[in-house]
Amino acid sequence: MDLQLKGTVEQILEEKSGESKNGPWRKRDFILKTDGDYPKQICITQWGDSIDKADVQKGEEVVAHIDIQSREYNGNWYTDVKAWKIEKASEQGTTSMPGKGGEDTQKTEPSPSEEIFDVDDELPF
């Protein structure tokens, strides 16, 4: 499953690093404000090399490909939103969708739902 969040980088938090039994680690969080009628602010974490690969900047519009993971500690649950890939909105490949942007919207074959539900039937309601 590929979960994606699109929005504007509102804030970049300080990078943290440390040493674990598996070796050194580093992470950086940033706050993404989503688009839409009810925008949300979401804290997204970048780990290791992904920090350098996608150097996000405040005010930049990005698409974050994320994994969501929850874990339990002492009876409390904590959820992390981890970005495994970040694309700048300006660099993201555009995909054309049927019926958008000047494409020919004429249908050649009816969809399965159109075949099942004939709009000219004489239903009493």
TrEMBL record:
<feature type="region of interest" description="Disordered">
    <location>
        <begin position="89"/>
        <end position="125"/>
    </location>
</feature>
<feature type="compositionally biased region" description="Acidic residues">
    <location>
        <begin position="115"/>
        <end position="125"/>
    </location>
</feature>
<protein>
    <submittedName>
        <fullName>DUF3127 domain-containing protein</fullName>
    </submittedName>
</protein>
<dbReference type="InterPro" id="IPR021474">
    <property type="entry name" value="DUF3127"/>
</dbReference>
<dbReference type="Pfam" id="PF11325">
    <property type="entry name" value="DUF3127"/>
</dbReference>
